[in-house]
Write a structure and sequence with these properties.
The protein has a single domain (2-93), classed as Dimeric alpha+beta barrel (Alpha-Beta Plaits). Helix content is 35%, strand content 29%. It is built from 4 helices and 4 strands, in the order βααββααβ. A 4-stranded antiparallel β-sheet has the order 2-3-1-4. The longest helix has 19 residues, at 22-40. It is globular and about 40 Å long.
């Protein structure tokens, strides 16, 4: 089992300043649900986003997968990506250290 990271960015940057349209809102809600389900199942290690609203705004997901093909399938199943609300790029990753929340 390896670790992977994907970086997400809005395909329509004005969504961040003007707000999402109804299709984007549905996809974003499904995106958060998908990631929370995968977190509860132990597959996702962490996910989050920058707290900005400009063209550099991005989110990340760090998760575990059997191989790069499985990792790409996992990323592609994310509703924000499958609904083209966000674009994403995948990399193999290795966490070297992490603060544990109390």
């Amino acid at each position: 089992m390896g670790q992977y990271i994907y970086k997400l960015q809005a395909t329509r940057p004005s969504m961040l300043t003007e707000g999402p349209n109804p299709q984007e809102e549905r996809a974003l809600n499904a995106h958060v649900s998908y990631l929370n389900e995968q977190l509860a199942a132990g597959r996702v290690i962490l996910f989050g986003r920058t707290q900005t609203t400009d063209e550099d705004t991005f989110g990340i997901v760090i998760f575990e997968a059997e191989d790069e093909h499985s990792a790409a399938q996992f990323m592609g199943a994310d509703p924000a990506i499958s609904e083209a609300v966000m674009s994403a790029r995948l990399w193999p990753y290795a966490i070297s250290g992490m603060k544990v929340r109390e």
